[in-house]
Amino acid sequence: MSVIWLNGDFVAADKPALLAHDRGLTLGDGLFETIAVKAGVPLRLDAHLKRLRDGADFLGLPVPVGDTILHDAILGLLGANGLGEAAIRLTLTAGPGPRGLPRPEVPVPTLMLAAGRIPAEAPPAKLIIARTTCRNEKSPLSRLKTLNYLDSIIARREAAARGADDAILLNSQGRVAEATAANLFLSLDGHWVTPSVAEGALPGTMRAALLKNWRAEERAVMVEELRRADDMVLTNALGMRKVARVLD
Predict the structure, then answer these.
(1) ∠ CA(182), CA(204), CA(149), 5° rounding?
(2) d(CA 120, CA 132)
(3) 100: which DSSP letter?
(4) Which of 7, 155, 173, 192 has the most CB within a 10 Å radius?
(5) From CA 94, how far away is CA 146, in angstroms rounded?
(6) CA–CA separation, 83 vs 34, rounded Å?
């Protein structure tokens, strides 16, 4: 039986983890991080926890434990589940609260860690450009990894309906922002470029590493540049996936 870490304790994963009035469930009031673990080592953990804390500060949410405790909890979770490689899901919610938008004066957050297997390497992706929704680059939430992924879910459903693996989300100005759960890098004229955070791209941890390692340029990316790119890759915390083509 698999095990999760919930508010400081290891518990069976098949036990209820959230109260019915937890604001993460009722209002999507919270954040999450996906952390890859390879050979027992959580990758880019400092970057993930900084993004979590920055997001929590913006939302006015306390993170109830320190980074060292979270690191040890991840290692303990791996041991409890017999995993050396894993995809760790860290979820922080605003905790239980009464009906309505205002939080309790003193919130009691829910903090949970769950471990799953890293997905097998996927073949090169066929992409579409989503028509049913877009990325709101003007919202501060575009820079946070919140619990609300409905725009991405809508776009991924559209991709499946149109025979593709994933969808590219444009921003409100019709420029490229990102894929449904990944950043996008394009090779143009021998140089890597990626949409900037100001264009609606989530500031991904893998994205930050590749910006440095590939000396990639952050800028506005136009739809027509997708057609002439020499190469494209999708990137997220769990790795990279090549892009085969963008379908019409």
Answers:
(1) 55
(2) 29
(3) S
(4) 155
(5) 12
(6) 16
Which amino acid, 236? N
- Residue pair 72/8 in contact (Cβ under 8 Å)? The answer is no
Q: With the CA atoms of 50, 239, 209 and 202 taken in that order, what torsion angle do they form, in degrees rounded to the nearest 10?
A: -60
- The tokens describing 53, both together, are 């804390």
Instruction: Tell me how far CA of residue 91 lies from CA of 113, 200, 225, 232, in angstroms.
Output: 6, 22, 36, 30
| Pair of tokens at residue 170 | 């444009």
Dihedral of alpha carbons 47, 123, 154, 27, sign: negative
H or E segment to which residue 242 belongs: strand 239-246
> 87-136, pLDDT tens digit by residue?
999 999 999 999 999 999 999 999 999 999 999 999 999 999 999 999 99
How far are the Cα atoms of 50, 105, 177, 215 from residue 54, in angstroms, in the given order?
Answer: 6, 21, 21, 25
Residue 35 has a pLDDT of 98
| Residue 119 DSSP symbol | P
∠ Cα 96 97 98 (to 5°): 145
What are the start-end ranges of the E strands in 65-134?
86-93, 110-116, 125-129
End-to-end alpha carbon distance in the chain: 45
DSSP state of 118: P
Question: What residues does 125 pair with on adjacent strands?
Answer: 243
Residue keyed to tokens 């390497």 = 121
